[in-house]
Amino acid sequence: MFGAVPKRILVANLEVVLASLGYRVAREPFQVVAFKHVGQKQRLHLKIETFGGSMVPKDAPIDLHIDILSQPMKYHKSIAFDAKIAGEMEALEEAINTSEWRVRGGDSIATCPVCGKEMGGRFLGGHLKINHPKRKPRRG
After folding, report:
1. For 28-63, how does the pLDDT look when each residue is reduced to its tens digit (9 = 90+)?
2. Strands, E, within 12-114: which ranges?
3. CA–CA distance, 48 with 56 (Å, rounded to integer)
4. Contact 27, 40 (CB under 8 A)
5. 111 falls within a domain
6. Cα(55)–Cα(43) distance, integer angstroms
7. Quick one: how far is CA 32 from the chain centroid?
């Protein structure tokens, strides 16, 4: 399923938003790639174009689909549209729209989706792993 980024956002802040939604994030030179396991041998695969800059422009393309993994290191099939994908795309666009980023000393400030604690964006991943290891982020 294809979508678009609803507003301009820094690449570092986009990574924090994706991590707070439960994705494993990897930055490539021209895109941000993220994965999230959905079920047995299935994962959500997300790609957002960054065009090589530090700021993701508004209406940048988002590619979201479900990979069906059969064996490691081989080609895999994918599902282009499903109810899970539509719900995840809605949640992603809402998270980007509602994210409020303040900058303090060059570091973006993020809010934990589980407990509401504010911290530097680079610390959110570690905070989620240590303080909320098996909990899912709250919605709404």
Report:
1. 989 999 998 888 888 888 999 999 888 889 999 999
2. 24-27, 31-39, 42-49, 55-56, 61-68, 77-79, 103-104, 107-111
3. 9
4. no
5. no
6. 27
7. 9
pTM: 0.72
Q: Is residue 73 domain-resident?
A: yes
Hey, what are 22's tokens? 């439960």
Q: Is 13 in a helix, a strand, or coil?
A: helix
* Residue 105 in this model has a pLDDT that exceeds 70: no
Question: What CATH number is given to the structural domain containing 79?
Answer: 3.30.310.100
Number of domains within the chain: 1
Query: What does DSSP say about strands 107-111 and 103-104: parallel, antiparallel, or unpaired?
Result: antiparallel
75 versus 3: the higher-pLDDT residue is: 3
